[in-house]
Amino acid sequence: IADRDILFLKEQVASLHESELGDLLESLQSEQRRALVGLLGEDFDFTALTEVDESVRREIVGDLPIEQMVEGLGELDSDDAVYILEDLDPEEQDDILARLPFTERVRLRRSLDYPEETAGRRMQTEFVAVPPFWSVGQTIDYLREDENLPFSFAQVFVVDPTFRLLGAIDLDSILRSRREVRVEDIMHETSRSIPALMDQEDAAQLMSQYDLLSAAVVDENNRLVGVLTIDDVLDVIQEEAEEDIKFLGGVGDEELSDNVVSTVRSRFPWLLVNLATAILASLIIGIFDATIQQMVALAVLMPIVASMGGNAGTQTLTVTVRALATRDLDIYNAARIIRRETWIGLINGLLFAVLVAIMAFVWFGNAQLGLVIAIAMVINMVSAALAGILLPLLLDKIGVDPALASAVFVTTVTDIVGFFSFLGLAGWWFGLL
Amino acid sequence: IADRDILFLKEQVASLHESELGDLLESLQSEQRRALVGLLGEDFDFTALTEVDESVRREIVGDLPIEQMVEGLGELDSDDAVYILEDLDPEEQDDILARLPFTERVRLRRSLDYPEETAGRRMQTEFVAVPPFWSVGQTIDYLREDENLPFSFAQVFVVDPTFRLLGAIDLDSILRSRREVRVEDIMHETSRSIPALMDQEDAAQLMSQYDLLSAAVVDENNRLVGVLTIDDVLDVIQEEAEEDIKFLGGVGDEELSDNVVSTVRSRFPWLLVNLATAILASLIIGIFDATIQQMVALAVLMPIVASMGGNAGTQTLTVTVRALATRDLDIYNAARIIRRETWIGLINGLLFAVLVAIMAFVWFGNAQLGLVIAIAMVINMVSAALAGILLPLLLDKIGVDPALASAVFVTTVTDIVGFFSFLGLAGWWFGLL
Predict the structure, then answer these.
(1) Looking at the DSSP assignment, which residues form a beta bridge with residue A45?
(2) In the prediction, which pLDDT does B81 show?
(3) Which of A71, A253, B299, B354 is packed most tightly, with the most Cβ within 10 A?
(4) CATH number of the domain where residue B224 is located
(5) ipTM value for the complex
(6) Residue in B closest to A345 by C-alpha
(7) Neighbour-count burial of B89, counting CB atoms closer than 10 A to its CB (0-12 exposed, 13-18 middle, 19+ buried)
């Protein structure tokens, strides 16, 4: 790049897969990236833009002249084009759409009109549809001759004259049938078509559950408007799992290519919330400062109760958040799972109560201290189980992503209950309040 | 089920998709499940077994007579059959394999001979392969006439007479080509075939990166032995993300349908490790018990330092574990990412040092205490960043899943460094040691 040996560069880049070009773009410094895209000019493969992190994409798109954007987007499948367009300002979108040919403009506009994160926004609007009375032979001839077909497809849809969806045929059934067989005899009914307004995660779960390679997307009148393919679903499922992991770990939607400043900025709020809850826990300890002064062993042991509760709560939380995400947990079995988690909390609480009681006795030679920490441990482990399951269920009920805030809330509960029950119980038992 | 109204039941169950039958089986009590499978008899759909949790599958398979197992497995695609077989004892496997027809026996045996979690174990051994000199017409005729084809397929492979892989054709290119076109002219080279011994996660990442719907699996001589399809990849990627989430949350591979006892048993070891590290942290506090007795504010404030470090460490850890899983982090950029995380730890450490210093001063009216907690905070946040990135990198290097043990290790580091730096510094500063 430094040498601007354009010919050599173009050759090299042309041999790269779009995702490799994407990785390359991400690994470059900002100016190098700009230089590379500039040098490639017309040869720049727009599909690579769908493979890079959002910050990189915005930067490249911001630099490109509008003529090149229009031309590049025109060559993309509609779902990829929408993916790039949806990051832009409405005026920029309009500007670009206005310069596209009529059919493409209508297609992209239709996707963009559906709300973000719905099946309609993610779908590909290019698809192959045939009437039910056609034969396999007619269909094959049509596929051979029509130039306007999508880049690749896995199903042919069968529709009536008003584009109402009747069924679908996998390509292998077409290939395995004789030319004279009628399309409607080999199509299977698509009872599992996806409403365009369905949330993309629900659509992804549906396709993944039924192992669908592609699914028809229909509007409210059951008219075919697009197709959702398995690679989009794969992306949605990966993003969703990624989001859960990051939220549970207390990081926002940062990416590895973000710089230090923007990462600090994105992690700061999570730490600030944690600071607030840590101070809350400290206030609880502060209530008992006189107690601690008289019996410093309490200060030594108190983090154990809090930490065990925090861990047990995180376990329950993790299971609950994932079960909600995979739709394994719903109102039908919630009561059963709550009972189950409470039992688990109680049993593990009793087991670890015995262990810490013995340890406290051996360490400080004080059997009563052992008894106190044991009772506090049981109380905190049961609270941990309840907090771990009830908080995410509550957040889910009010429409907040249960992974988002649960981790901090759950450890707040277990810290406060842990410190309060242990110090309070000890102060009352030993008369140190 | 209670009424044993077999006919009605069979009708109902037959209308269910395999994954719905799987969900039904999971939601039933053990005896009801046994009764249902017994009543269904020959009509029991074995694909449902691939949709249930492992404990449920073992139970059902254990109850089934071997004749029914043999017949049921014979009807499955080879990858599904292997999925069920691999849970059984070697003797049971041999017993069942011996009763299967020769070709199926050889196919299943070939998959089972590859180690667990490799592409070879996951692949489907039924595929369609044609020689390069065939025309599109010949291929279509072959597909129409051969009865022995896999249940469904997305690609046709092109092989030489020794089954060495030459290329692959997507079904839509076959449908769009004229009958006289030769296969080798429309095939694309499959530079991205997957060695049978490749780890299934690597294979899944590869297919997901290049958006492949199906990929050829080849042996060490580049001979085609099977095909890996996108739905298997989807399962692998989901399992992998699921595993990361669960390990980071401190739960093993438990499932929602597990009972209380087995869940307690699976969570107990994680809590035990946490107990050990919590005791370690307590020992550190114990060193400074005289210091705390003289200045009880230290006991009140010390959880703040530890908790902030734990949170910051978990953030770095989460990002690192995911970057390793998605292969975004490797030896080429590790140094850069370590530097980045250290800077983030330092900057966030300084920001929160100022905040807690002010808070400590306001609360206890002691500016020196504020200074001490500020310094301890910076030390612990930087340690948290280093622990959060170096521990998972180390585990990954020695071949341990970085998600497995990192969370506990990282919070151990931050607890110990947090308590030690804050209490030690305070003791030294105020001469209370």
Answers:
(1) none
(2) 79
(3) B299
(4) 3.10.580.10
(5) 0.71
(6) B264
(7) exposed
